[in-house]
Design brief:
Blueprint: E1 6-16, E2 22-33, E3 38-42, H1 49-57, E4 64-69, E5 72-73, E6 81-84, H2 96-107, H3 113-126, H4 142-155, E7 160-164, H5 172-189, E8 193-196, H6 200-206, E9 209-213, E10 221-226, H7 244-267, E11 279-280, H8 290-297, H9 299-316
Helix pairs in contact: 2-3, 2-4, 3-4, 8-9
């Protein structure tokens, strides 16, 4: 049985509509995450991705349903959950180290200044900014500011790291470098991550599972894609893996067409259980295609891909 470290259970969110009534942004979302899992959510603007993240952060509340983290229902903000926003959101009057130390002292208010600074500096070093620890935000580049934001989030040892398009405002080179660093840090620390993105390639590179949401209002989770790429993937070779383009094409096809036709398919009688969104592996629809993967990618990558497929099949039956 899957470890339900995070359990999203039937949540919906609605707002008052002009002229009376309400508009339901998303409805009856069910999803679970295991400890240490990296999940990315993709969908068109207006489907409620950020609202779901805000509910996980405790900054918003669902109109119905509940979110449970490590056995406890979310009932407001908590330092057990850290958020990295699109902008760095640093305090301009504090140094890079001071911004991180402020978070650490909030998490552990009884610690001495030496203990706080040591913990903050460890987080600064984790993102490679020790040489800029004493600089103010005005003296940092955009990428460096975002590194400080990442260090601040990681410094409080959160149960969940919530990321709302954290690399979207950066240039391509800086974005790639930070993606590499975040991926390495999360693998090394076993960090549980929930990320929102519009970048398909980013989701494929970083995430273990990719959640596809239909269009809003009334958005739903259409399916969850199990990433078949090996855990040891790197930026330089990820596009050479034979599973890469099948997964990428599957997600793009969803965004271009299936996200719009999903509701009409359900209305036409397509089988659907919102409590168990289908877990799919676009790269290997049948185990028999494993031989083709082995020829193209070698036995090691094929074995990793088969393992993901087997896990996906097992989860469908639990």
């Amino acid at each position: 049985m899957q470890d339900r470290y995070i359990s999203i259970e039937g949540i919906s969110r609605e707002y008052p509509a002009p002229g009376g009534g309400t508009t339901k942004i998303f409805d009856d979302l069910w999803m679970s995450m295991s400890r240490g899992e990296f999940v990315a959510v993709i969908g068109h603007s207006g489907c409620g991705k950020t609202t779901v993240l805000n509910i996980l952060a405790g900054l918003d509340a669902p109109s119905s349903g509940v979110v449970i983290v490590d056995g406890k229902a979310i009932e407001g903000p908590s330092l057990d959950r850290a958020v990295i926003f699109q902008s760095h959101a640093l305090l301009p009057w504090k140094t890079a180290l001071g911004n991180v130390a402020y978070a650490v002292s909030s998490r552990w208010p009884r610690w001495s200044r030496a203990e706080v600074n040591a913990k903050a500096m460890a987080a600064i070093k984790l993102v490679g900014l020790e040489a800029a620890a004493d600089r103010s935000p005005a003296q940092l580049s955009g990428g460096m500011k975002q590194r400080v934001g990442i260090a601040r989030a990681l410094s409080i040892d959160p149960k969940i790291l919530l990321m709302d398009e954290p690399f979207s405002a950066l240039d391509a080179l800086t974005r790639g470098t930070l993606q590499d660093e975040v991926r390495n840090i999360c693998i090394e620390t076993g960090q549980t991550v929930f990320m929102i993105t519009h970048d398909v390639d980013e989701a494929i590179y970083l995430a273990d599972k990719i959640v596809l949401m239909t269009n809003g209002p009334g958005a739903r989770i259409a399916e969850i894609v199990a990433n078949p790429l090996p855990m040891g993937r790197t930026r330089n070779d990820v596009h050479r893996h034979p599973a890469y383009y099948p997964v990428r094409n599957h997600i793009i096809d969803f965004l271009v067409s299936r996200s719009k036709s999903f509701d009409s398919e359900i209305a036409a009688g397509k089988p659907w259980d919102s409590r168990n969104p289908p877990l799919v592996n676009p790269a290997i629809p049948e185990p028999a295609t494993l031989a083709q993967v082995a020829v193209a990618a070698g036995a090691e990558q094929a074995q990793a891909t088969q393992q993901v497929f087997t896990q996906a099949q097992r989860r469908r039956t639990t």
